[in-house]
Amino acid sequence: MNLRDALAMIKPVHVEEELKHDEVVEFLKSRNLLDSPVLLNVEGKKVAKNLVSSRQMLGKYLGVDAYSIARELSKIEGREAEIRVEQFSSLGMNKVEVNLKELPVVKYFPRDGGRYITAGIVIARRNEIFNASIHRMLLLDERRVAVRLVPPRHTYLMWRDAVESGEELEIAVAIGTHPLFLFASATRVGEGEEFRYAANLMGGLTLYKKNGLLVPDSEIVLFGRITAETAKEGPFVDITGTYDVVRDEPVMVFDEMYVKDDFIYYSITPGGKEHQMLMGVPYEPVIYKFVSNVCKVKNVIMTPGSCHYFHCIVQIQKRSEGDAKNAILAALSANPSMKGVVVVDEDIDILNYEDVEFAIATRFQPDRDFVVIKGARGSSLDPSAEITTSKWGIDATKPLGKGGFERVS
Q1: Which of 35, 217, 238, 395 is catalytic?
Q2: Can you tell me whether residue 172 is helix, strand or coil?
């Protein structure tokens, strides 16, 4: 499966009007397409966006409905789908001169530090272990980018190990993969587990080997290295729609570039629904598993109003008083970045916030059902947090054995 298969399945809006690289976000906003799947014409080249911008689309790739994503993803790691390896030449890509400015790399917002590659999957190999993860990359010139590496995540640790050994970290960057490979690369799995996780999501995976590295079917593949040199990176908009700080980040240099005929560049809008979905939804199966250790969990969603990142709703089958409180503690433990949890009963539609608010309004009493945890580690993306943060939980479940809560159809 590749990007073109996904485009055929989703059928995005085609925009024929030619845009400049710094006009994309404003144009989409003016057409009410900011979070809709689109295929654009940017400076004469094709750009796809927003193929993972809703639960419905992600569910379609997985073959489930929007309500079943957490349950489906919680089963993925137990599968063993086939991974095949072929020579890179069998992809039939064209080798071209490395010139990043020939790609339709977008500058999203006026105050951005420059043009950013936002959907580049960095595939690294160190000590025979592979890692695949998404990193933003600020264009410095035709061959170099400043790449944001977050410590202590795997790519950062691989790079530090290489630099401390007097080496550079050899990498490939894949742009324009199938959305499920993109999703797998955004999911925090065990060291070296991204390929296996992607194969399980996709029902099998073919990888293509070159320079000792493995890449999936992609529209654009760049081969290069992350050096010991650093450069200023930022400003850049993060998932909250606010600017991240400027940092010194490693410089990545590209030596080879391959593209498909009539290639399609893929772009993620910073702070958009797709950005939030890719960062937050991978936590849902983790929370689902943690909560299942303390009570009968039915479903979990990260809420769109919290950028799919800071709050979640947990649906349980309540069997004992205290189940909801235990669910709150388990959910907050599962995702250290999360700030708040609402626990509801089976009759509440967790994708309908009005229904969730109904549960809070009619089943929750603040003096007995509100949990606050002070001084916990939270997310650096939360602008209201200081060194630590406070976390909260709401038990919006019905008391067992008490009348007056039955809803009419």
Answers
A1: 238
A2: strand
